[in-house]
Amino acid sequence: MWLHKNKLQVTSCRKEELRCLKRSDLIETLAKNLPTQSVRFGCQIVAVESDPITSFPVLYTNDGATIKAKVLIGCDGSNSVVAKSLGLQAPKVFPISAVRGFTSYSDGHSFDSHFIRLRGDGVLLGRLPVDEKLVYWFVGRLSPSQDSDVRKVPELIKEFTLETIREFPPEIIEMVKHCDSSSLSLTHIWYRAPWHLLFANFWQGTMTVAGDAMHVMGPFLGQGGSAGLEDAIVLARCLSQEMPMGPEGAISDRELCRRIGRAMSKYVNERRLRVMRLSAQSYLTGSVVVASSWVKKLVCLAILVVFLGGGLLSHTNYDCGSL
After folding, report:
1. Gyration radius (Cα) of the chain, Å
2. Can you give the residue ranges of the FAD-binding domain (predicted)?
């Protein structure tokens, strides 16, 4: 549901499914299905290089450890050390700040399953239920200079947000006022330029990237996390297809390196077009929001029409295949 100046536009999801998850729940669920001690907490990669003899990656961490790996998949976010080692250009920032938070209704809410977006003067608010009691919401606006002063203090973020939405309906103001302060975050919106994805070198040897490290994009489509899961499935499938162990058993490091490289090449070729389309659509949508010139807005909208030829949610009609 899109509401602007008392005009309501409703889009049915039809066969598509719109579901909101807490990121922490998703990560914990995935982590619980890993073998014990698979995850090393409090560890950050600070540098990566190739072993001069085997060509396999060598990692250096912030706690002084040196780790030799056969395969390195950089999932280290928008400020990825692995992406930098591959020579990818640094992400850019939209002149937009976003506040995100959760509000819990002890007696339940009456919002059904609607994802509603309300637009004010230079402000966009979205609300989407997680379950019958918990609601996720966000507020986006052009970045003011005082952002950096409040982003680390939850109560200041709440005050800043309430001031931003003071002209919004009372139920929206109450939702923000009674939110879980510990869930609040205030961040800038980062993106990797779509034209950089066209020829970017996403793999080298036995090293590649996935998720935001590969294709960080604005949240305007709500597809960043989904695209990361698609990456994981495609990469796992490509690796498994190239790594069948025959009756001869172990293979040499040279043969292993060759097989992994071939799998990563297939992975990148399969993902490049998909992430380019998502990134371009997200970039254009964000540009419509921030553009001060009506000419630029119209140009971006015209290009978006091409992307949206299959409908507003056509980008969700995508099947990355199975493992």
Report:
1. 22
2. 31-241
CA atoms within 13 A on the CB side of 255: 8
Buried b / exposed e along 220-258 (16+ C-beta atoms within 10 A): bbebbeebbebbbebbebbbeebeeeeeeeeeeeeebbe
For residue 192, give the DSSP letter: -
Rounded Cα gap, residues 210 and 322, in angstroms = 17
Amino acid at 178: H
- The pTM (predicted TM-score) of the whole model is 0.88
Residue with tokens 């992307």: 307
C-alpha distances in Å from residue 172, one per residue of 18, 46, 75, 135: 21, 42, 35, 11
How would you write the pLDDT of the chain (323 residues) with one tens digit per residue?
A: 666 666 767 777 666 667 888 888 988 999 999 998 888 888 889 999 988 888 899 999 998 999 999 999 999 999 999 999 999 999 999 888 899 999 999 999 988 888 888 887 778 899 999 999 999 999 988 876 556 667 778 999 999 899 999 888 899 999 999 999 999 999 889 999 999 999 999 999 999 999 999 999 988 888 888 999 999 999 999 999 998 665 556 788 888 899 999 999 999 999 999 999 999 988 888 888 777 788 888 888 888 887 666 666 778 888 999 98
Name the residue with tokens 């982590």: 31
